[in-house]
Design a protein that fits this description.
The complex is a heterodimer. By secondary structure, chain A is mostly beta strands. Chain A contains no helices and eleven strands. Chain B is mainly beta. Chain B is about 0% helix and about 65% strand. In chain B, strands 2, 4, 5, 9, 10 and 11 form a six-stranded mixed sheet that branches. In chain B, strands 1-3-8-7-6 form a five-stranded antiparallel sheet, with no helix packed on it. The chains are: A mainly beta, B mainly beta. The interface between A and B is medium-sized, with 24 and 25 residues.
Chain lengths: ~120, ~110
Amino acid sequence: DAGVIQSPRHEVTEMGQEVTLRCKPISGHDYLFWYRQTMMRGLELLIYFNNNVPIDDSGMPEDRFSAKMPNASFSTLKIQPSEPRDSAVYFCASSLWIRGDTGELFFGEGSRLTVL
Amino acid sequence: GQSLEQPSEVTAVEGAIVQINCTYQTSGFYGLSWYQQHDGGAPTFLSYNALDGLEETGRFSSFLSRSDSYGYLLLQELQMKDSASYFCAVRDRNRGSTLGRLYFGRGTQLTVWP
């Protein structure tokens, strides 16, 4: 299995530009999570989907952030317009829910975003 | 809301034993997970406790006390490659989701010296 695939791995952009981060979850997984990691705030849950439907977006910082999952094999996280404080590593993770199981999340390698 | 507390850093020498504690506050608790993250890498799953007691997986063990809202990760026979950040994560119930949500602590940086 290829694991969770994220792109781009690195993105440097200027304030005000639109940023789109992409994620391909592990085939067959029914949950997809977007996390953001910074030194100041650690790993923050932004939003997660179950069977392509957003379940909880309470962690999305503000309206500049949006996430979609048009099908079971693809999700995007968009920031428009971007600001320097959005600089972070954004992780996508997927999971397959089995009752009584550990709920293990499989993380991608992350997208490191720098907004100048 | 949720809150998790764990030490920010721990140091130890090769071959030693180290314990990383985690206390948490959450509603609708499902279980406590532990993840490892090497610099610049993805977090990877180590263990999960839903019930009180000790779970052992090779050199790593994890403990949970639900009544005390407390858990720990025990690493034995430390190796240099164990130098990494270790995160406890609470899995809690969430309306509309049987899997629930996973909230992470700030992480404990473990440094293993030769």
